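Collaboration report, partner site 2.

Our partner group contributed sequences for two proteins of shared interest, and the home lab folded both. The records are reproduced in the order in which they were received, starting with the first partner submission.
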Amino acid sequence: MQTPLTVMDFLDRAELVYGDRVGLIDEPVQPAASWGEVTYRRMAELARAQAAGLDRLGVGPGERVAVVSHNSARLMTSLYGVSGHGRVLVPVNFRLRAEEVAYIVEQSGASVLLVDPELDEALAGVPVKHRFVLGAESDELLYDFANEPVRYRISESQTATINYTSGTTARPKGVQLTHRNLWLNAVLMALHFGAGDRDVYLHTLPMFHANGWGMPFGLTGLGARHVVLRKVDGTEILRRVEQHGVTFLCGAPAVAAMVLEAAADWDGPIPGRDRVRMVIAGAPPPTSLVQRFEDELGWEFMQIYGLTETSPVVTVNRSRAEWDELPSGERAEKLVQAGAPALGSQLKVDEQGEVLVRSNVVLEGYWQQPEETSAALKDGWFHTGDGGALTDGYLAISDRKKDVIISGGENVSSIEVEDCLYRHPAVSEVAVIGVPDTRWGETVKALVVLKEGHSTDEAELIAHCKQRLAGYKSPTSVEFRDELPRTTTGKLQKFRLRAPYWEGKVRKVN
């Protein structure tokens, strides 16, 4: 017997087994009316009412519904009210400008747009057939509790969500993820990181990003409790961990750094010591951050490597029994690797050093972009665009291929240089890029944000690197910045940092 794997399986089970349990706690302070505490039975009722409302609007199966929202109970429920009932949800980055959102709405062909109240004015000009501002008014207009929704027959190969890439290069592409992709990713995340019905999960990760890495699905099916956090703040994360007994969260290294910074000023014992585990992804973390995370917070550091195109889990790295007796510094060195393949994933590195993936979580394709799809899925492998190496089954990411610096014929990993600079006590953030050089072709440049109250200079940072790295890897120049541009998920937007130095050049490498 074979039955289709669909995202609705997770909420159906939660309603059946944990119906009376509070499964979702909405952000209490937000522009929309908060839903407060929501049981799994109520959440399932809301999802059905949303689906019935879409029926009433004439939005048929397979049609796209876009939503631009900060983390909220309404956004999470839409994963089931839209995707779980045969339509396609298009979660959009809430930091995009109106013209970028308009492009996504048009390119996806969305007939419905749901907008966070905070973004109502900024996105007022985005053309779409049906538009709702999330809140009490839209609850009245969109949710139909009087009628049962049509329960369309869903194939596991159908597209469930279209998630647009972060736009670090050119126009964003719409990543088609199927019900099968999302189902298996959710189960893999729960399996590898030991999720269960006693977990309390804090949504520090934007739900729009690869559907919250699958946590809204897997943890729902297991009956865990979700706590919505609208905006990330280190002190607020610690407060919620203490208030709700949080055991589990996800985010980029930048989020972990925020928590460490807040912990330095926290009054009393750090909440969640020996209880909280956190999955990190989005950028390779510096070794020093991993060690401080476990030593100072007492939280378990875990890591995945993945992309929107892989739902996202490709590799997992969690401390194993053989590492238990290692000093924290040595364990941190092992944990900064991207990790070993997740169950069911196959990896290889081709002759050009690019990481290739074969797995059931790899995208169906890019929405209405067959040429991009063919290039990404060439020869039966997904081409990640990341450079890396496999050692004893563990993947280490060396760089985005386009960010490898070739200086005097030698390859330099920007990540390695960044990791070195992070070890300097005055450095808060750093991005290393290649800039044109008449002698060496390219040379290494470091853009640095200093910690508050700390000072250093260019010569000291270059000397710091030269003491720890080969000469050709060390920066030849350092610029100090107030901040570095990042995506919502914490990725450095190096194309923006590189652009001024390569202006007027036909090629972006020398």
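Second partner submission, folded after the first:
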Amino acid sequence: MLEERGLYWNPVLETLPQEKIQALQLKKFRRILEWAYKNSPFYCRLYQDAGLEPGDIKRFEDIQRVPKIEKGMMREVQQRTPFPYGDMLSVPLEQVTAFRQTSGTTGTPVYQAETWQDWEWWSESWCYILYAQGYRDIDRVFIPFGYNIFVAFWAGHYAAEKLGCEVVPGGVLDTQARILKMQELRCTAFMATPTYVLGMADAARNKLRIDPAKDLNIQKITCAGEPGASIPTTKKRMEAAWGAKVYDHIGATEIGAWSYECTEQPGGLHVNQALFLVEIEDIETGEIITDPGKEGKMIITALDRIAKPCIKFDSKDVIRWADYECDCGRTFRLIDGGVVGRADDITKVKGVLLAPTAIEEVVRSISELGDEYEVVVSKKGDVDNILLKIEILPGKEGEQKSILFRLKDQLRVKTNLGYQIEVHPFGSLPRYEVKAKRFKDLRKTGG
């Protein structure tokens, strides 16, 4: 069966002309809008207050009239019945078969209800991702994350099974045990955050004396949770450490797995337009951006999710349409360079707009620096200060002066800002298994 699919998990949808994709999206959008209006008290109030009924959406352009929702609304609605999801829920509580929640890195977790149909949809969306990245039924896939209430790689696990892969769940094992199990079973692929991909490689080399690129059989790695796999210098580090291809994907608990990088690695990610409607909104004017190259924040709709619909969700993710196509032949539009940052994180420092991803790109470009770093923005009086904490690799300490000169120079070129640099002993900065918290803006907390 997989051989019959050729390059694509869904050969029909992934190669549809854009005008037919847009027609499909309009049909699905009208369907989910009507479903939410009829079955969710929250959405019904939202649309009635805006003077909108589902029948008002007749053309694709009419979608812009539909009110947006934000994560704060999702948190607030959880105070209402039915517990614990609130009246955004669009199915009877007894139809909910799985509980997930967001990681809480940006505030109180959002609870996500899933019906069995929703969970099948999650798995299907991940099948597009894994198949495009070369996963096949001959792969043995290791999943090195703590199976928890966060969605993380749950759907990746089930999609790999759906593809026919052999899945090895490494949840309760510690990092060293996971590496040894991957070696023992000759696993060919695994999934993790970029931080943990680099952390595992570091543990393999320095604690087990295993060279992942030579002593393990990993051929492909799928990343999530952080933008690192779309940052060229971070991707290069990961691929060099493991001797494997590293692929990015983007998803979220409240949204779903909405985009993916394919084996062609064109420099951008395909938006799964068959299952999601992605709009890019100008941060200043609110106008929808359809042309390539201009950054804006993503407004997204999950077109097939029924338990707790995600309709016109303001994700705060900053993205831009690519001005190129992919050689893989997929007609889904590409976003250039993945997620550029979050509207919440892109902040002004000394009057200059700063994206944390720009700092990561510089740090990871200097081979003598370790994988971990930390950025602290603070304010003394009226003056902003940026402190960058770094580690120098063992054996490179004697080159510190040259390293710091290059680091400061590249930071100035890439971000137009000056930094206070602190060199910490190798291994002393925090290590993370899931999402890293390397950027701390103390000005927002009065620090």
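Feedback sent to the partner group on the second submission included the following. The two ends are 58 Å apart (CA to CA). Residues 120-247 form a domain with the Rossmann fold fold (CATH 3.40.50.12780).
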